[in-house]
Amino acid sequence: MFSCKDVTEHASDHLEGALPWRVALQLRVHLLICEHCRRLLRQMRAVSGALGLLGFGAATTRRRPAQRWTELAVGALAGAAVVLAVWLLPSFTGIERQVYAHAIDRHAQPGPTLPSAEVAIKLAVVGARLNGELPGVVFADRCDFFGVAITHLIVQTSTGAVAVMLLPEHAKAQKFTRGGRVGRIEAFGNGTLALLGPDAGSIDEVVARVRAAVEWPA
Ligand SMILES: [Zn+2]
Ligand SMILES: [Zn+2]
Question: How far apart are the CA of 40 and the centre of ligand 1, in A?
């Protein structure tokens, strides 16, 4: 899901109609729920309209008719997709869907193994502590998870990378499979541990590593 920061990053491309439709769709869904970003885009549109009247960017708005029709068709499809997305929204509240949506869309290219000090800083976002060695962490950050600040790690195993999210809220424990990925949600410390990985074995391994090295007091 798009955060307000994502919207500001993509806003000018959106106004130029230059966003890939998947990204445009995510942006539109965010606009449905965020008055702040709707206002931001209204203001940007007003400014770019004023610049257009002054003749700035006139060359880029002159387009071949065929291209215009393609854009109209794509616009109509995007509109239909938004209607579909709104229709689906009530069922998009399950924690496993949110975990999947967040983990699958981001942090596609993790780098080398991070030093423990850096991991500890990101764990502190939710009040968790590193109490030993947590091997294989290739990504650690504070993320906006549907409006909640979470710690998001990616831990490398021999069978692939596992996304680990420390959610500072309590959720029902469950195992799920979605989009060819295996997920797990379980109680941990002062909140919930959510994982998404290539298979159950890699998730078992990472859960054991996290539980051995991370302390999350209430
Ligand atoms: Zn927003
Ligand atoms: Zn994240």
Answer: 9
Closest-CA residue to 128 (of 152, 108, 112, 105): 152
| CA 18–ligand 1 middle distance (angstroms) | 20
Tokens 């680990």, located at residue: 164
* Residue 151 and residue 104 share a domain: yes
Q: CATH number, domain at 126?
A: 3.30.200
Taking the model in full, what pTM does it have?
A: 0.58
Expressed in angstroms and rounded, the spacing between residue 36 Cα and the centre of ligand 1 is: 5
At residue 61, does pLDDT exceed 60? no
Both tokens assigned to 199: 């298979």
Cα 81 to averaged position of ligand 2 atoms, centre (Å): 25
Q: Which residues surround ligand 1, an ion (CB under 5 A)?
A: 4, 34, 36-37
| Pair 38, 66 in one domain | yes
Domain count for the chain: 2
Q: Where are the beta strands (DSSP E) in 82-169?
A: 129-130, 137-145, 148-157, 160-167
Mean pLDDT of 78-91: 50
Q: Which domain holds residue 27?
A: 4-91
Compute, in angstroms, the gap from residue 24 CA to the centroid of ligand 1: 14
Do 162 and 136 lie in a common domain?
Answer: yes
* Poorest-pLDDT segment among 18-22, 127-131, 135-139: 18-22
